[in-house]
Amino acid sequence: MMQVTDMHCHYHVEGAIASGLEKVLPGPRAVVLGTQPEDWNALAAWVQALPDTIVPGFGLHPWNVHRCCPDEDPDCLDAILDSLERCLHRYPQAWVGEIGLDNRVAKQQPDRPAARARQRLVFARQLVLAHRLQRPVSLHNLHAAGPLVEVLLEQQGALPPGIVLHSFSGSPETAQRLVALAREAGVHIAFGFSRAVNARSDQWQHVARAVGLDALVVESDRLTPAHAADDLTWMVQALADLFDLTVDDTLQRLEATASLFLALTSPTHS
């Protein structure tokens, strides 16, 4: 079986911790992302069970902002961020994520402008925390490319050391603008692709060509490791076909980029 680093998944949501679990994982490392305070403890249990394999990420996903941080409770965000910071101190290897912006979800709220503003505030404050603690971030962005760029520009002097755009579905032009922004800020950036999300259209192929293979990572976005290996293998093969490379060469370059981001929270990183 191909050994692939899963750079974005949620195995702790439906996956069960059991003896021999490491044998069903798709590779030696997996970035497992929390999305709300209620699932952070389950994620921590996975880290404790597989400390050499699971790289945790703790964050408040935009889908959960309206429920976890309602406007009528002004103190809730401070409490969540305090809890988030404790998690990050407890796990020095942890990322901040999954965080970001989602305009589709904002449109479902009764007060759309308020929902967008709340998402933006929560996102920005998590970015500030990631910068202060020097942790990479895994970013969700759906139908909010403009606001995403605006927030990153506002914080250009205080961005996290690494940014991975999860299952990126934006345009090649947006991707190139984000690359330029990251280069100017002196931070690493990569674009993740998953079979579960990106295989629905060929948009990811245009983005991949625009930014190049060395700016890419692969993800399963799975809630359990059961089918993650198949999805990751499919994505590696698709990228090999796109760039007219062997699977081995493609995997080697993808793993090099994954290793660069994972090293940002290693004990030797400064």
TrEMBL record:
GO terms for molecular function: hydrolase activity, acting on ester bonds; metal ion binding. Signal peptide: none annotated. Keywords: Metal-binding. A divalent metal cation 2 binds at residues 140, 166. Pfam families: TatD_DNase. InterPro entries: Metal_Hydrolase (IPR032466), TatD-like (IPR001130). It comes from the Eukaryota. This is TatD related DNase. The lineage of its organism: Eukaryota, Choanoflagellata, Craspedida, Salpingoecidae, Monosiga.
